[in-house]
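User: General secretion pathway protein GspL, Sphingomonas glacialis:
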Amino acid sequence: MTETLVLFLPAPDVPWRWLRIAGGTVRARGEGFPPLSTEVEESYVAIAPADAVTLHWAELPDRSLAQSVTAARMLAADASASPIGDLHVAVGREGAILERPIGVVAATQMRAWLDLLADNGVDPAAMLPAPLLLPRPESGYLRADLGGEGVVRGTTSGFADEARLTELVTGGAAPAILPRDALEAAIVAAVAAPPLDLRQGAFARKTRIGVDWALVRRLGWLAAATLVVTLLITIVQLIAYSSAADDLERRTDLLARTGLARGEAVSDADRQLSARLDRLRGGGQGFSRTAAAVFAAIRATPGSEAHTLGFDPNGTLRVGVGVQNEGQILDLQRQLEASGFAAAPQGQFQALNGRLSGDLTVKPR
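Assistant: Predicted structure for General secretion pathway protein GspL:
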């Protein structure tokens, strides 16, 4: 069970006083600095004397704490005789009430309190002004004895109980005395949810960054497991790709056997199929494409005709043609060149019966 030790900071004529809260109730109290517990987890809350902290209430910007503190410092500068640079200003909140509490205390006093606590081995999680331990009354004023000093709380005021000051502030009305049970319940509530924590800005509690080595080890094992799983997935994918490639190669070999001559042994399906294709179609562009280009050129040249065709294994086509004049020979050559072939006369064209006859050699360019 977590306990909370509430320490009332001492004044020149008042010693240390303390309360220990556990399970939502005050379990122990005493004077003098208490022994710190080493058996249970314990948090610390310090209570600043009412006469050392000046409290104000005002409606402040609610966008950010920095804006609220800036506005509060401007108000404190107008209401304080001390230079604002020497003062520490803190801003709190009480539930949904628009007016927010503002605590003003000398910066040197804050440092002295924190040094005193540190000398006793305490780094408080929060520091509250004593009047804000009392509940906010609907009207009028409440009074209670806290840590050896009388404290008065109004709806928008909080101060140490001093006869003349109290009468001046309350207009002569006597504050209502807060019963002990109600006071302890109010202290427990205020410590659990401080309406104003003086540990802000330069005096905010420094958070310690610790290394959770158990978490680091767990993350290390998790990273290693992730790496191993990723590696296994990659290996399985490689095996699957290799198996698929082997299967594709087997299917290619079977398909190649259907395209080769019957009884031919398969050693290199791609090379053997290419060789058979060359044998079937001929070299170069093949007989079919070469002959088609020749006949297209002849059809495009009026008065020309083909007499003979001869196709060599190297892809060269020899075609005997007859034309009306030498210009048609050039026309045939241009037509074949446009189709991607080179055409050249083989020897001289002979004149016979008013026509020219000869051979053209056609091959891919």
